[in-house]
Amino acid sequence: xxxxxxxxxxxxxxxxxxxxxxxxxxxxxxxxxxxxxxxxxxxxxxxxxxxxxxxxxxxxxxxxxxxxxxxxxxxxxxxxxxxxxxxxxxxxxxxxxxx
Length: 99
What we know:
alpha+beta
């Protein structure tokens, strides 16, 4: 599946910040949301760009460190699901995902 990400980027507290668009192509529906971000970050690093910063620890839905707002909701569109447990099958090919 291919999705478009709109990611809030802000270098520091004094930076005005802005949304930046990234295309995530060939994403497996079996990937977790964080795994998808890992793949996007690998591509950004290869191009010499700053990766998308996000916190995580256990990646097993236990610690809650992976909290982020996805589509305007904490952890994303599924209730009682942390971002690390949110799989890309919760989205559709062609979706625009705001983080």
